[in-house]
Amino acid sequence: MPSSEGIFIWITKNVRLDKLLSNSTSFTRSQAKFAIRGGKVKIDGIVAKNAAQQVTEESNVEYMGVAVNKAQPRYIMFNKPTGVVCANKDKDHTTVFDSLFLPRIDTLHIAGRLDIDTTGLVLITDDGQWLHRITSPKHDHKKVYLVALDSPITEKQIRILEEGVQLKKEKKRSLPAEIEVIEDQKIKMTISEGKYHQVKRMLAAVGNHVVSLHRESIANIQLDEKLEEGQWRELIEAEIQFD
Ligand code: URA
Fold first, then answer.
1. pLDDT at 6
2. How large is the average pLDDT for residues 214-234?
3. What percent of the chain stands above pLDDT 90?
4. CB 9 within 8 A of CB 56
5. CATH 3.10.290.10 location in the chain
6. Active site annotation includes 115
7. Looking at the domain covering 8-70, what would its CATH class be?
8. Band of the pLDDT at 64, cuts 50, 70, 90?
């Protein structure tokens, strides 16, 4: 069964509950029945017991405690494992969306893609204005990365990163990064831009090399420690109203 924590359901007409679940998600019909038998599905606050039960437009269907409302925009945080790509479709790799088990994935967008080998916080939404607000360079939202390095970071490298680095094929220097040294070869790096391979390119430009990269936060939205790799949850109101 999928390990994700919630599923939105798009209700269009009266339909059997198990059919609705399998139509709206990546559950097979038997997985849907299994979820219902397992008491994971509620209709109007009451645990559904019968897979054949009819649900209507007005029914409030929940899966694993997540309220379902087709009219409301969706805001999701995902803990991306390595090997998963931030794309809607990919013929060779698992995508972020393959991991979500959500309906209408074509309406969802990733707010700030990560490389295939980068782990950590990925935000996903179908709210275009919110997407723009969180990704627009004008807003300069800080992104915090935990970076493992090939060789020990030097004072000189830190100084250059904190002044801003001239990256190849960029007209302007990158904005200054904030560096916190955790160990010789492990730093926390905060940047407010989101250029392609930015962290890796900045470290390469000062003569170091990124061994692994993990995004911890975007603006004041922190990756939830309770989310294991590959799991997701909805954002809470305070996160949706980020600053
Ligand atoms: N910077 C990178 O180099 N890669 C990422 O995935 C994110 C930021």
1. 46
2. 96
3. 64
4. no
5. 8-70
6. yes
7. alpha beta
8. confident
Q: Write down the pTM of the prediction.
A: 0.75
- DSSP category for residue 67: -
Nearest CA to ligand 1 atom 7: 114
In one-letter notation, the amino acid at residue 26 is S
In the chain, residues under CATH classification 3.30.2350.10 are 75-240
Tokens, residue 114: 């990560």
Structure tokens at 135: 């990704």
Distance between CA atoms of 162 and 52, rounded to whole angstroms? 61
What pLDDT does residue 48 have?
92
Q: Indicate which atom in ligand 1 lies nearest the CA of residue 112.
A: 7
Half-sphere exposure of 202 (CA within 13 A, CB side): 31
Instruction: Provide the CA 99 distance to its chain's centre, in angstroms.
Output: 10
Of 18, 115, 117, 224, which residue is the catalytic one?
Answer: 115
Instruction: Tell whether ligand 1 has an atom less than 6 A from the beta carbon of residue 115.
Output: yes
CA of 189 to the centre of ligand 1 (A): 11
Asked if residue 117 lies in contact with residue 212, where contact means CB atoms within 8 angstroms, the answer is yes
Homologous superfamily in CATH for domain 75-240: Pseudouridine synthase (3.30.2350.10)
Handedness of CA 177, 181, 185, 188 (dihedral sign): negative
Q: Decide: 70 and 103 in contact? Cβ < 8 Å.
A: no
Q: Which stretches within the chain are classed as H helix? A: 17-24, 29-37, 128-135, 155-163, 198-205, 237-240
The pLDDT of residue 11: 45
Pull the structure tokens for residue 70. 């087709």
